[in-house]
Amino acid sequence: MGGFIFRYLPMGVGPKHGAPIHVALVDKKEIEGSGLQEEDAIELIAGKINGPAAINVFDLEAATTTSDGVVIPGAIVTMAAADRGKVHKEFGILHMAEMEVTEELVKEEPHLAPLGVLYPGRKLFRGPDPAEKLIPVHNAVITGKAINNNSATEIMNAVTMEEMLLPILGQLQAMKDGDIVFAVTGPVVSVGIGMTVAEKFGRVFPTRQFKAGETAHNSAAYARNLKAHIPCLVAPKEVLAAFILDALECGMVPGRELGCSPAVLSVAHALGTEIALDNISSRAWLELESVGVCRKDLEKPSPMMAREEIILKADNIIPGLDEPYRVKSTDYFQKISVGV
Amino acid sequence: MRMMHTSLPEFKLKLKGAVVRQSPHKSIEIRGLENLKTAKMQSLRTGRIEEAVEQVAAGKETSKVEVVVMPRVPETMHTVIVKGYDDHGNPTKAVLEVINIIHPTEDVELEGFEQIEDRRPSIGRH
User: Fold this and answer.
1) pLDDT tens string A225-279
2) Which residues in B lie closer than 8 A to residue A137 (C-beta atoms)?
3) What sign does the CA torsion over A234, A238, A241, A242 have?
4) Averaged over A9-16, what is the pLDDT?
5) How big is the CA angle at A20 (ends A15 and A23), to the nearest 5 degrees?
6) CB–CB of B102 and A158 under 8 A?
7) Distance (Å, whole) CA A138 – CA A163
8) Do both B65 and B10 map to the same domain?
């Protein structure tokens, strides 16, 4: 039996008002190495922080998908919310559902096809099984003031009502001690325009409610403003570009297999791969055009850039983020030891 | 056993009465029901809450009792009715929408309390 460490971002750190609650990220392997059960380790972290906190447990040897359907290595397997050392016994912890990767699943969710090529044998996690949770709609855990939502990618303070977005790639950067970008979401990121793929037990939706090329928010030009002023912690754009390129190089087509997010569309156009323009719904186009992503531009000849060039110029190619600043995650996330 | 229900005004009166029974000099504040104009309150629990109010009010050092009613499940689903009327007050158009609201859990109301008795049954039970 030994101790374990977790990565800790204090409340208030980050752009604007900063993180609305404390953030703790912990590797499942660390917990296993300590001999503790996951729930006990979460209780110990909650006690160490003693304030409103989101606690996310990672399996870095598993895989997940981004909101636009790009398969990536590493996954959140458990999410928790704590306040003043307590984890709510009914609403405080939620485990993500492991999805058995079968031919049938890949047929239903074709954006998963790269999984077998890029990350064979990895377990797949996105969101929880709705039958396992007591919060009726959102994939959220709540204790006191702390709200950890959308399968641990959005945190809120129920009293100050401040919020921060923590997309999966940004958190994985922190878990790898890599660079992260602090920013304000801005209109492009806002509510994840174009970021929908059909997933059972998805990070946000439990059923295959929205397909690639559709819009979940379906609020036309209002979408760009819904969450445009929220601080976020994301991966550098070159990291996002590389994973999108991986999926495109596996034959994934934006609007058909992948979501039609501005990032995915921009990288596909730069690379010169197919975009299913006709499959993007008129309502999704309204949202995309409201943030300057227009069909006529995507129909122009591609610059046919090489992978390396796209990664190098990712900050110019991928739109979105206001007031971004890149930092070393290790300068902001403290490593806290927990003795057992 | 029949599951009787208590009217909202009667519920409030009962809780006030439970404090006054201890002392007319002690006060009570009920929060969380302001938005309800008409409602029927579960009688089985009304009696238990009356008893709890009286027990808390009985404390020698207690001079004020607060009763907070909040959603037990911290996400509630609501229907939103958008209604238009003309100059004469006649209905023009209505749209039904839905909104899910996330609330803090009860812990935010319990800061500083060391004596907490949780008498709630598990979710779904009376």
Assistant:
1) 888 899 999 999 999 999 999 999 999 999 999 999 999 999 999 999 999 999 9
2) 75, 77, 100
3) negative
4) 96
5) 95
6) yes
7) 15
8) yes
Number of structural domains found in chain B: 2
**pLDDT (tens digit, 9 = 90+) per residue, B48-60?**
999 999 999 999 9
Q: What's the pTM value of the predicted model, to 2 decimals?
A: 0.94
pLDDT of A219 reads 78
In chain B, the residue whose alpha carbon lies closest to the alpha carbon of A139 is B75
B102 contact residues in A (CB cutoff 8 A): 138, 140, 142, 147, 149, 156, 158
Nearest CA in chain A to B122: A90
Contact list, B73 vs chain A (CB under 8 Å): 91, 134-136
Which of A83, A88, A147 has its CB closest to that of B102?
Answer: A147
Give the H or E element holding residue B80: strand B75-85
User: What ipTM does this complex have?
Assistant: 0.89
Q: Which domain holds residue B12?
A: 1-69
CA atoms of B89 and B79, how far apart (whole Å): 22
- Based on the fold, state whether residues B49 and B86 are members of the same structural domain: no
Same domain, B1 and B27: yes
